[in-house]
Amino acid sequence: MNETRTTCPYCGTGCGLRVSGASANVAGQIPAIKVQGDNSHPANLGRICVKGSALDKTMGLQGRLLAPHIKHQRVSWEQALDHAAQRLADIIQQYGPDAIAFYASGQLLTEDYYAANKLMKGFIGSGNIDTNSRLCMSSAVAAYKRAFGEDAVPCNYEDIELADVVVLVGSNLAWAHPVLWQRLAAARAARPDMQIIAIDPRRSTTCAEADLHLAITPGSDSALFTGLVNWLITEGKEDALWRSRTVGRTETAQAAAPWTADKVAEYCGLSRNQVEAFYQLYCKPRRVMTLWCMGINQSATGTDKCNAIINAHLVSGQIASPGCGPFSLTGQPNAMGGREVGGLANQLAAHMDFTPEAIERVGRFWGSNRTAHKPGYKAVELFQAVERGDIKAIWIMGTNPAVSLPDTNQVARALAMCECVIVSDITAHTTTAAFADVLFPAQGWGEKEGTVTNSERRISRQRRFAEPPGEARPDWWIIAQIARRMGYEKAFDWSHPHEIFSEHAALTGFENQGERLFDISRLSRLTRTEWEQLQPIQWPVNSHYPAGCPRLFQDGVFAFPDGKARLVPVHPQPPRGTTSKYYPLVMNTGRIRDQWHTMTRTGMVEGLLQHRNKPYCEINPADASQAGITENRLVRLQSATGWMLCRAVITDAQPVGQVFVPMHWSSQFALQSQPGALITAHRCEISGQPESKFTPVRAQPV
Ligand code: SF4
């Protein structure tokens, strides 16, 4: 039986998979494949979760987009490509390059992402390409850059197992990254002294399993970690070596000084004993990891929250050695790959900013004198610019922003009035696709070739094992075809994704002489056969680290000119939204164990609906009683921007004054069930990441 080693297309854990058996997609038939964890892949060592093991059930043709369409009429590829390229060219000629935008996805492969970024920033000449990764980890990106001088996750999954104390903050790891949770749970079973501390307003599955659960007031995370910095300093727990490796200590200590344990306890809704218990566990001279996810990043002060966490690791010296470090977990399979190619609107390419030197250098590498000179719109701003009419054409690739962005009513208005909406997807009838003027059928998981990078900087191959159905094509091919029709034949003259990967890898080291951290230029020399056989490897991959680098900054040298890390003074701020007598509850959103994003794949698998099969809200018994809500009663949640319907789950795991709603449902699966409609588009001023964890709402029985 044929066996293909590939990578899971869901969460940022990036598990290696072994897929055995394959067959062509035939209408009405599910390819006969079996999916197992790959025990040779360092990310999962053979483990797999329920979503990964159900991947075979997502390979059928139900709901697949199989042919190009213009205005929902089937057309040939030639017609669709000619039409889209002409529309883009006409709009650029009439309004300029900034009237065009791309909205990409952490689901794209690195080669697809590179092609999209090159076309927009290199040849159309605008910075207007952003991505759903903006909603995922852009606060962590900004914080790493502020602290280390480079967007670089310093640690790896093995460190989680080596730690003595693992702090999980804003992360329901057991559901959102199940295989990492399995690894952590196994490590604790082997070393019962290991302590897991979970910081989360609600008692999630992860918190219920933790040794210490701190149910903090929503949005108070910065205060808890800034208080920790103050505790480290006042209790004499600073690490002397690391003090010499950082700058900004005086200002950071001053900002932290007011945050005594008493003040932290009051601000965070904890007892002083709880705060002290956390600080003392952290301060023992052992190995500490902090893992965080959307509960930190999706905040109007997300970047500061991330820096508060990183500050604590720099002050305590819990960094750059085995079992230590501040670790932002990415949500998506290739959020990291998007960061690498410049898929965020504020990056140029290959982790380079829009500096005059980088613009000139990248332009020379690409052979273009049209390279964008300034950042473009970030996700939320981008769709606001569409609604204002500043952006006339948008190309949405592999994502469903009409469900996943905040204030989805605004997104729908923007798409409805946009002159030209192009959508590339594998699914025919998403909420977003309904607005499309042009629909391109993309190839899906198992049908295309390329690479992805997981949360620990590990580049892995996704490999093809099934024939693409209908007329589906790879995203990079679609982008290159449009580019060629716009007159950029030479720069997009690729015939295989290996050529794109080589070009991308070469750009990371172009004229840098090994000075930049994100450098995988050694991989640019891979032959096609070597690329096809590429084993998982962690960047950088250059002359210093020819076999990759599992742990960064071990020499204590950071990416700033003076080589030192930066402590960033953090002044904790409350969330932007406020509750009132009209909206007395705080709505929090998150993932559930068995669904992925807007359910366009997992929502069609019956087995994955056994766990949770309908939109619901978790609400405390006291709040339910006050509102007259009973178990399983249909509830209307209303915010200042919209409303949704869901079933009540009454539980004391949910604190008084708060409701929790899964992020996944939309009208595609249940009437009026979209939490994004309720979320105001407040966002972090530094990262642009929206605040999805603090929406004032009211709950009423229907
Ligand atoms: Fe896929 Fe994430 Fe599950 Fe691994 S943990 S199998 S990457 S969904």
From TrEMBL:
Ranges for domain 4Fe-4S Mo/W bis-MGD-type: 1-63
One example GO MF annotation: oxidoreductase activity
Coiled-coil zones: none
Cofactor dependence: Mo-bis(molybdopterin guanine dinucleotide); [4Fe-4S] cluster
Alphabetized UniProt keyword annotations: 4Fe-4S, Iron, Iron-sulfur, Metal-binding, Molybdenum, Nitrate assimilation, Oxidoreductase
The keyword Iron-sulfur belongs to this UniProt entry's keyword annotation: yes
Cellular component annotations (GO), alphabetically ordered: membrane; oxidoreductase complex
Record bears the keyword Cell division: no
Sequence similarity: Belongs to the prokaryotic molybdopterin-containing oxidoreductase family. NasA/NapA/NarB subfamily.
Protein name: Nitrate reductase
Organism: Mangrovibacter phragmitis
Residue span relative to the full protein: 1 to 702 of 878
